[in-house]
Amino acid sequence: MVYVTRIEHFNAAHRLFRSDWSDEKNAMVFGKCANKNGHGHNFTLEVTVKGDPDPDTGYVIDLKRLKEIIHHRVIDRLDHKNLNLDVPFLQNVQPSIENIIACIWQELLPHIPASAKLHRITLHETNSNYCEYFGG
Amino acid sequence: MVYVTRIEHFNAAHRLFRSDWSDEKNAMVFGKCANKNGHGHNFTLEVTVKGDPDPDTGYVIDLKRLKEIIHHRVIDRLDHKNLNLDVPFLQNVQPSIENIIACIWQELLPHIPASAKLHRITLHETNSNYCEYFGG
Amino acid sequence: MVYVTRIEHFNAAHRLFRSDWSDEKNAMVFGKCANKNGHGHNFTLEVTVKGDPDPDTGYVIDLKRLKEIIHHRVIDRLDHKNLNLDVPFLQNVQPSIENIIACIWQELLPHIPASAKLHRITLHETNSNYCEYFGG
Amino acid sequence: MVYVTRIEHFNAAHRLFRSDWSDEKNAMVFGKCANKNGHGHNFTLEVTVKGDPDPDTGYVIDLKRLKEIIHHRVIDRLDHKNLNLDVPFLQNVQPSIENIIACIWQELLPHIPASAKLHRITLHETNSNYCEYFGG
Amino acid sequence: MVYVTRIEHFNAAHRLFRSDWSDEKNAMVFGKCANKNGHGHNFTLEVTVKGDPDPDTGYVIDLKRLKEIIHHRVIDRLDHKNLNLDVPFLQNVQPSIENIIACIWQELLPHIPASAKLHRITLHETNSNYCEYFGG
Amino acid sequence: MVYVTRIEHFNAAHRLFRSDWSDEKNAMVFGKCANKNGHGHNFTLEVTVKGDPDPDTGYVIDLKRLKEIIHHRVIDRLDHKNLNLDVPFLQNVQPSIENIIACIWQELLPHIPASAKLHRITLHETNSNYCEYFGG
């Protein structure tokens, strides 16, 4: 069993707030992240699958194929977007990295080839913050 | 003469477009960067000053002081902001890194202590793009 | 269950030696790390907590709060210090990264909010060495 | 129980192909990686051992000793080499990172001192790809 | 005048040697870099152009266009290639980073749009070595 | 003319203070850097030489030779040392990065081979601070 990771990037805007809270409460809870006109990040996404290397190719998964899946299902829909407004699979989701990562997992899971198993997603928001998710 | 650099960070949203152009022209010229609801980046800012080290302290400039100047004049006004809407010194400026860096230079220049001289600003937008400015 | 990590930094001096050993034995066992007047590093500390995202905020933990805890309990006491001489919670501890990380765990554990659980600490000493600790 | 990691580097050429396949099939399956005259990478190798810190030294393992083992068993045999042609322990192995990492594990395992236990190897091929192996 | 840099990557094999020298002399002069079957690197290429930002777009150059030029003229011809054997514009060139960078300059120079001026190329071979070239 | 850079590392302790100043004045001027028992850093040193590539080797300078010179003249004397107490060429020097870099220049200059010319030294103290020196 070998664990293989592909790393991709997307640049997006977001804002943390609740529309049912006052501006004061949003500012108190979310601080600068509640800024009305949003802010943004260079997000780095790591997708790890596990499995046995294929005897012919030595691959757990063809990383070109994994790259295509990540781009088709995630990067093309998040890159240069506003995560509050532009992404159908994040509608009605507070776009914290904890919630984004769980939604990315759901988007990727059905598309990983049967020979490999989705093991972990890591999402870096800044050089100081990242989160990891194992699917449950 | 020694060149000393302080590195700081800000996370911001922006959008590249012209309000006097059609959506089609904005999309053609600016591509994904014209997305209506914006996108964002982790920007990294390097500020370089030059001068002779002080005989007592060995400092060209006290880097704690340079950090305070950068935060007071730039980071506090750009971090977790929308560069199109929230920043007085970027009003009516197309927020490309080329234009942002020249505006940052103008904000910092009057505040650098006389013993040092502002030499260069470097602004990184992603791991693939950065620009440098020497003030003229 | 999501795992969230905050990364902080401290710059410190230390020396590896035993006062009950001869200089020769200290040099033989610890090599350059036994240098009498010490040496130092830029240490990078990663603190990982796990838990379920809060339904209102999407946070496992408010990372501003986690940052404050790490600074109050660890960074403020280690940064720009000599780890052999200046740190009460490292008294009588050989300041190897393995021992430092276990002491940092003890300092942080009682202060992590109940909604999250301390999962892992990672301590980087150089670009070539790091250690991880899961608390037991 | 503390996990300690040493990071080392090697620069090598390789080519992915099967001699029993046609050029067309090799190109279809392996893409650019099948280039006849090879290509290459700066590989980064992380070796993680686990154990209890020694009461005298605070070490799980002397990292100078671990570095020597990694260099003697792995780096000296892979650095500035062609992984298809120059490495006895990779003979008849498709040099994918998944296969290389398992072979490195076998080379290192018998040489780790009894006080520590080989836990994980991580092999980075580019800034976008890496794999991990836990030995089974 | 603003300086704008685009960063791209290619992974390639090479070997340093002279066919008119003996194996012994090649080994003495080039060390491990003379290995008969080659070795390889993840090369990082930075291309810097300078100019005045366009009043409409704020661009010195459209970085998407600069990326296309770099890929068409350089990356597509060097990535996953053997620099001794596979690259017409490096024929009969000793593929040291000093020589490669001057050849890349010649390939790019005629294709940079007139509004910008090619200023500097930086080529990183490893985390320990890089070279810069300003065209003369 | 090509500029070639070699990057090396040293880990050292230092303290900024003047013995002819009171503790209060040292604390006021140097802040945490005046801590009595010192602190430390992982310093990164970049040494850049310039020249014409040799027609036979393609080298401005043999980087193995440049590495040896840097190690012999600088790294071996600064690594795992206390910069206030252990380094003859820094005696009576306030060990700020501005002063250290000028002393390193003096140590290296006489030992660079005649075919190349010492162009620039860069010294990184943390991820936030670095300085550059061109020798005059």
Descriptive tags:
5 strands, elongated, 3 helices, homohexamer, 136 residues, 5-stranded mixed sheet
Please provide a written account of the structure.
The structure is a homohexamer of 136-residue chains. Chain A is 26% helix and 30% strand. With 136 residues, chain A is an alpha+beta fold. In chain A, strands 3-1-2-4-5 form a five-stranded mixed β-sheet. In chain A, strand 4 (117-124) and strand 5 form a beta hairpin. The first copy, chain A, is elongated. The first copy, chain A, starts with a strand and ends with a strand. Chain E binds chain F through residues 16, 18, 29-31, 93-99, 101-102, 127-134, 136, and chain F through 1-8, 48, 53, 56-60, 62-64, 67.
Strand segment tally of chain A: 5
The quaternary state of the protein chains shown equals homohexamer
Largest pleated sheet of chain A: 5 strands, mixed
Q: What's the average pLDDT of chain A?
A: 97
**What does the overall shape of chain A look like?**
elongated
Estimated structural class of chain A: alpha+beta
Radius of gyration of chain A, taken over Cα atoms and rounded to an integer in Å: 17 Å
- Helix and strand succession of chain A? EHEHEHEE
Q: Approximately how much beta-strand content do the residues of chain A carry?
A: 25-35%
Cα(first) to Cα(last) distance of chain A is 21 Å
The low-confidence parts of chain A are: none
Helical content of chain A stands at 25-40%
Annotation field: number of helices of chain A: 3
Widest sheet: strand ordering of chain A:
3-1-2-4-5
The most extensive interface between chains reads:
A-B, 23 and 23 residues
